[in-house]
Amino acid sequence: MNIAVDAMGGDRAPQVAVLGAVQAASELGIDITLVGDRETVVKELAYHSSTDHITVHHCDEAVQMDEPPLKAVRQKKDASIRVAFNLVKKGISDAVVSAGNSGATLASGVVILGRLDGVERPAIASVFPGEKGYVILIDVGANVDCRPTHLFQFGVMAHAFASSCLGMVNPSIGLLSIGEEGSKGNELVRLTRGLYEESPLNFIGNVEGRDIFSGDVEIIVCDGFVGNVALKLSEGMGEAVTRLLSTELKSSFFGRAALLFGRRSLDSFKRKLNYEEYGGAPLLGINGVGIICHGQSSPSAIKNAIRLAVHYVNKGLLENMRKQRFFLTDDL
Amino acid sequence: MNIAVDAMGGDRAPQVAVLGAVQAASELGIDITLVGDRETVVKELAYHSSTDHITVHHCDEAVQMDEPPLKAVRQKKDASIRVAFNLVKKGISDAVVSAGNSGATLASGVVILGRLDGVERPAIASVFPGEKGYVILIDVGANVDCRPTHLFQFGVMAHAFASSCLGMVNPSIGLLSIGEEGSKGNELVRLTRGLYEESPLNFIGNVEGRDIFSGDVEIIVCDGFVGNVALKLSEGMGEAVTRLLSTELKSSFFGRAALLFGRRSLDSFKRKLNYEEYGGAPLLGINGVGIICHGQSSPSAIKNAIRLAVHYVNKGLLENMRKQRFFLTDDL
Q: Is A70's Cβ below 8 Å from some Cβ in B?
């Protein structure tokens, strides 16, 4: 098993990516190829005593976090994220992990590996830790303007992902809307509903924003604009809630006593609200396994993402994805 | 000052609406007209010792929470929510407060009072308690499929509301999108941006879901589909976070000690996360003042909504709204 890690991607590259990779290689006993500027990466590796299982693959360029993704991927042929996907194409690596420009990761995945047969639009899935188990939100940002077929295919891809990688059996799928009745929602949702109803998928109808946390549904489908707003909102609220709790507790004597006693519980609470730690979002619909991490990922988030990548490869994500029917009828 | 309260609206009508109204009348010293089935409402009032300032206005019908709003409003001419808005039209009441079917409240407001001159689509604003002050999200559910002009007008209405009722001076306005760069966002956002840039409004560009909590922007504009998803998501996450915190603390001895010491701080924390308590969302763009409350509102939420209605009337919300320019050029 070899995972290609984009060493130049992320707000604190290459430090964080290198540290995450070193930890993952040591804990998981897998091979990792760090893709990036050799000199910079080797200098960073020098800080670590154990770099077994780690190799460096040099490239001359990197996509910056704020660069327009499509243009950058087209122009920078030797960008680390492109080179990482090329390692997968050549069979050298089994998956790509990147905390870099997520648009560039998506574009590179599509350009280098291509889409799976039948998939019109690859999508990014995000796995939320719901109260009753995982909840998958798809798409969280790859496709801002969607047609009903796209939203249908997102559900098919998430179904394949959930079945093969998360151990879900015939996972329930809901369409993110603003009311449970079928008549509610925008035009896109109303048109998509029929496709799901005709399909063999376990479609349970419309769901609402609150269901991302309730866990009453396992897969929630939406367009990438709505999904990205939802993802960013959850992250922002998680941070705000953590700050609010500290402020409330610090504002009184008894509160400060509670902080002292409850330190461990409160830290665990904060960690669970910190979605950045969960280790990245799988890019589904391309001819390979790719994981997109938050730009602000910590080393442990990178390590977790590498662990997930290994898990997805071992579970045969790609093989399961290839078996899916992405259209309801052959002549569509 | 007289506020018309829809006694038949809400999941626990008429108990909650009546109790909220009784509390508001006593605390604020204003007149309240409870609109609903006289016998039911009078029976409920009998539980309360002080019903000064409260009158009952009888009507025969009520819109149920799960009824299709437009059809119900069209067919039930004597529905409590229609009758309440009619009291405003006749000059008997100054504003309407309802925890009933929000679609029916919106439709009744538009049908009975009409839209303000120049307003194409009335919208529902939600006021979030951000860390640095209030953040207004508009629209949170009135309009699921929008054109750029609609999104522009939402900002104009929120500007008038924020200036007159929340004491904001030239409030900053952001377009909810999935990245701050102007090139990002879906087609609707990209087309709307130009309208704001040409306007005299204090437009600061695109903002992200996390900004609802950061307070770095005062007004956030989006279509009603995205806004409603965001609202429901915040509510759901608030509830989930509260449960998670309890679970974490109860799971250890020291956590239980922390619960004991921090009871007051933790209760304050939970209240701040409970958006339902904030007292309702103003319906903007109609010829009158209307407040839409959560169906699960508590009596204190109803009381708060009545307080807000009084405040908005006193601050001249409607007069300020009428002064706004809803189009950039006269020939639009």
A: no
